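I'll show one example:
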Amino acid sequence: MLQPSNGRRGFLHRILTATGLAGAAAPAAPAQDRINARDFPFLPKYARAQDYKSLKQSSFDTTGGNKDYWPVAAGATREVFNATGPGVITHIWFTIAAPGAQHLKEIVLRGYWDGNDKPSVEVPIGDFFGLNLGQYAIYQSDYLACSPGKSLNCYFAMPYRKAARFTVTNEGKEDMRALYSNIDYQTVPSLPTDSLYFHAQYRQSAPATPTTGDDSKINLNGKLNHVYGETRGRGHLMGVTLGVLQNADGWWGEGDEMIFADNETNPIITGTGSEDYFLGSWNFGGRDGALPFAHGQYGAPFIAAPERTGGRYLCYRWHGDNPVTFQRYMKHTMEHGHANNRGDNFYSVCYWYQSEPYTNFPALPPADARVPRVRTA
């Protein structure tokens, strides 16, 4: 069946297909309808009857005025979404007015599924949208994007059976003047039994500890790698975002990705270098020729002062073409330099789906520790 390839509908179709939710909104069609669908492959899905209800929760002014935002005081938490299921969040959009220079690192987004009191999403808001170094950069990918005007967009489908709740917490020292929020979602009759819960986990190595001696030459088990995410259960890995702040001159990206699935001792996937994992090549162009790039499933949309102390990179890689499956356990890691021989700062988010609506996350570092700073001593 022909499907749109661009725009929101294209994003949503690819996401639902990758997560097994395509067509989940409608109950089983009668046999005659299924035959008709096969007989008319030229008819796109959006031209057929749907069985979901489209809704939005937003920061609109409930008095009818034009103050369509929420102020969030320093230290305060604002609930931005609360719905009972079954349903699917299809799109999240935020834009923020805040005086703090590091507000993208200080504001934390948390998401809870089916009434759990611990989050399955817990990420500084900038990192969640691929802005892992606390600064805005315009780019577009299949699942995340940042537009001119500092608008933040997420197109990961997020199904829930009983309830969904999202909050934004201002962990900075200054009040947030305005949080504009639009969260689009669907209510559905039911979800397939194999639908999974979305997770996003923040990790940082700031700085990573470099290896020395023989340990800096060979690394087969990944024991000192930067960890993107770790979980237990059944599901599949969808990808990562990464911000790198260099603490020394030279190329940071000789580290291999190592992904462990249902084997905690040895990785089932080992790559050939960090820039290769992010589907670039040759140092993204090198010290004097590096160029930013952003595509649907991969990119390095921001590069500044490449291969120099203080150099900054934003990278992302999605596995929408082939989500990495696991039945019991998953850990996604990457070397920081060959055999972990560099001590740069890594700030990352790992995105995945799994059958359980909650997994134990490591403690989120305090706001000030999340701010990228060059560490040369």
Confidence is low (pLDDT under 50) at residues 1-9, 15-20, 22-27. The chain is about 10% helix and 35% strand. The first helix runs from residue 7 to 19. The radius of gyration is 21 Å.
